[in-house]
Amino acid sequence: MIANVRGTVLAIAAASAVIEVSGVGMQIFATPATLASLRIGAEASVATTLIVREDSLTLYGFADADERDVFEIITGVSGIGPRTALAVLATLSPDELRDAVATKNESVLTRVSGIGKKGAQRMILELGTKLGPAQRSVPAGHSTPVAATNADVLDALVNLGWAEREAAPAIEEAMVVEPGASVAQLLRLSLRILGSRR
């Protein structure tokens, strides 16, 4: 298995990036949050997993090893393939997914594109305690300064192709919905808001 890729970012698209490793450009599919953290021409290190099919070898990339591990567990749920698993992580952080499964919150899971009520019930049943304990790295009461968070999220959305005039109001709306959200949480919520307006 290819567990990690480190190299220079050659290109970034809506759903994937190309990272050059020892002269070879590897296309890596990832969530918008992971792609937004990359910069063309800069070196990047991405946790990865390789999905092997009869007709393809597809590399998926993640912000960290925890996100990769959660992706691999999700793809073990019947009826959920890699693309849907990636959509889950584009909508929910690993800890948000853990919370939703632990509390049997179907409505949170059905926010994911491609997951209906039955799919949410199946995820809750099959995932059970497989996801392990929460990996929250920011202690309660310790958040990133609001101005820095806003700037990081705005920069990420612009890099993903959104106009600043569209992105800024979505960030403001997201901050009302989730006060004190981390950069990753705010980016996910802003993307959901922008997507709903199209």
UniProtKB/TrEMBL annotation:
InterPro entries reported in the protein's UniProt record: DNA_helicase_Holl-junc_RuvA_I, Hlx-hairpin-Hlx_DNA-bd_motif, NA-bd_OB-fold, RuvA, RuvA_2-like, RuvA_C, RuvA_C_sf
For whether the record's keyword set contains Protein transport, the answer is no
TM stretches of this protein: none
Q: Which SUPFAM superfamilies match?
A: DNA helicase RuvA subunit, C-terminal domain, Nucleic acid-binding proteins, RuvA domain 2-like
Question: What are the subcellular locations of this protein?
Answer: Cytoplasm
List the Pfam families. Answer: HHH_5, RuvA_C, RuvA_N
Q: Which residue range or ranges hold the Helix-hairpin-helix DNA-binding motif class domain? A: 72-91, 107-126
User: This protein's superkingdom?
Assistant: Bacteria
Q: Where is this region: Domain III?
A: 149-198
Which keywords, in A-to-Z order, does the entry hold? Cytoplasm, DNA damage, DNA recombination, DNA repair, DNA-binding
SMART domains reported for this sequence: HhH1
Self-association or partners: how does it assemble? Homotetramer. Forms an RuvA(8)-RuvB(12)-Holliday junction (HJ) complex. HJ DNA is sandwiched between 2 RuvA tetramers; dsDNA enters through RuvA and exits via RuvB. An RuvB hexamer assembles on each DNA strand where it exits the tetramer. Each RuvB hexamer is contacted by two RuvA subunits (via domain III) on 2 adjacent RuvB subunits; this complex drives branch migration. In the full resolvosome a probable DNA-RuvA(4)-RuvB(12)-RuvC(2) complex forms which resolves the HJ.
Entry's family note: Belongs to the RuvA family.
Tell what the record comments on domains. Answer: Has three domains with a flexible linker between the domains II and III and assumes an 'L' shape. Domain III is highly mobile and contacts RuvB.
* Primary role: The RuvA-RuvB-RuvC complex processes Holliday junction (HJ) DNA during genetic recombination and DNA repair, while the RuvA-RuvB complex plays an important role in the rescue of blocked DNA replication forks via replication fork reversal (RFR). RuvA specifically binds to HJ cruciform DNA, conferring on it an open structure. The RuvB hexamer acts as an ATP-dependent pump, pulling dsDNA into and through the RuvAB complex. HJ branch migration allows RuvC to scan DNA until it finds its consensus sequence, where it cleaves and resolves the cruciform DNA.
Q: What name goes with this protein?
A: Holliday junction branch migration complex subunit RuvA
Question: To which species is this protein native?
Answer: Arcanobacterium phocisimile
